[in-house]
Amino acid sequence: MSRIPPLIADFSVCHGCSLCLLVCPIWHQKHDVFLTAKGRAKGLQQGSKCKDLSDSILSCTLCGACEPVCPEQLDVRRIILRLRRQLFIQQKERYANIVAKVQASFKTISEKNVYQFHHGRVLLAGKHLHEQPDVLARIQRLLGKKVEIASDDAWDIALAVEAGIDIPTQRLEQFLKPLRTAKQVIVTDGILHRSLGLWLPESIDVTNLGQALSQLSAVRKQLQPTDLYIIEERSYHSDYQRLVKYYDTLRQEKQCQFNLDLQRIAVPTTRNSIHHELGLISVDYKQQVEWILSHRNVERVVVEHILDKQAFQSVTALPVIHLAEVA
Ligand code: SF4
Ligand code: SF4
Q: In this structure, how many other beta carbons lie within 10 angstroms of the beta carbon of residue 63?
């Protein structure tokens, strides 16, 4: 059985139930059905071309919140990535800057510097955690010496996946080859969680940093009922069937609040989307986090993704800490 349950990457099966609208941050902010999974599916069913749907294709944050609720099990993110690829090919000149920026990020790593690790557990920390060395050092201390931080954290690959831009085969293979010998790969970026789940053999456990940290007793015992715990949405929705059970147990045990709605979909902060990297306009993440905070009686915000720390600090005077900082 596949680790990532197969979804259907065929917009024609959408029957227009609108359930995806309820969880979509774009719908929440813009109230424009054209910018949602339903809007794109209906547009394509009626013969719209990529260029007609360009705003919709580019605005999706790939949060994945719509996938667990879709009764047709539509693989909304795979469809978006396919459409982005087509759009950039068909409208080459218009999107040349975006494509050039992503392509310029591709790393060239000489064979002798290809990452090697020794203990079987590896953390892909990502660009933003490397910019916060104090937090990264705490994570390393908590996870222990047997979790190695990969020097190649594939930031360029994550960016290209999200943009729907082809990754040079050699670069991808250079990144994946050492990972294939791992027992566990811990990711901070939900886009990589999903992709690695598809690229790596099923025997390799791909998990999110939130789970890796919150299952440690040193971290778990410090979570309080007065905490608001912010799950990183893209990892969560990439492995929803498994993680929904994990976070249910955590919630029952610690009694803290989560950014989960009644259907246990993680309300997206959207702070970790490509739009902020590339200067594209999609959703206002401050509105999202204000919405998540509204009507809550909490004393502290605990986040799994380092960018969510900055996002919440920008709108609240409550203490906001990364999960690694609770212990
Ligand atoms: S939830 Fe699925 S079937 Fe329903 S409108 Fe959205 S994409 Fe279509
Ligand atoms: S992936 Fe997120 S932003 Fe994109 S259509 Fe689904 S819910 Fe909306």
A: 28
Tell me the per-residue pLDDT of 241-258, one tens digit each, with 9 for 90 and over: 999 999 999 999 999 999
**CATH class of the 11-102 domain in this structure:** mainly alpha
Q: Which helix (H) or strand (E) holds 227?
A: strand 227-230
Q: Where do the domains of the chain lie?
A: 11-102, 111-209, 213-325
Q: Each residue of 14-63: pLDDT tens digit? A: 999 999 999 999 999 999 999 999 999 999 999 999 999 999 999 999 99
- The response to whether residue 33 sits with its C-beta less than 6 Å from ligand 2 reads no
**Candidate CATH numbers 3.90.550, 3.30.70, 3.40.50, 1.10.3470; the one for domain 111-209:** 3.40.50
| CA pair distance 283, 85, nearest whole angstrom | 21
pLDDT tens readout for residues 230-241? 999 999 999 999
Q: How far is the CA of 38 from the centre of ligand 2 (A)?
A: 10
- Helices 96-104 + 155-163 axis angle, to 10: 160
Measure the CA–CA gap between 101 and 114, rounded to whole angstroms.
24
What's the one-letter identity of residue 17? C
Q: Is 209 in the pocket of ligand 1 (CB under 6 A)?
A: no
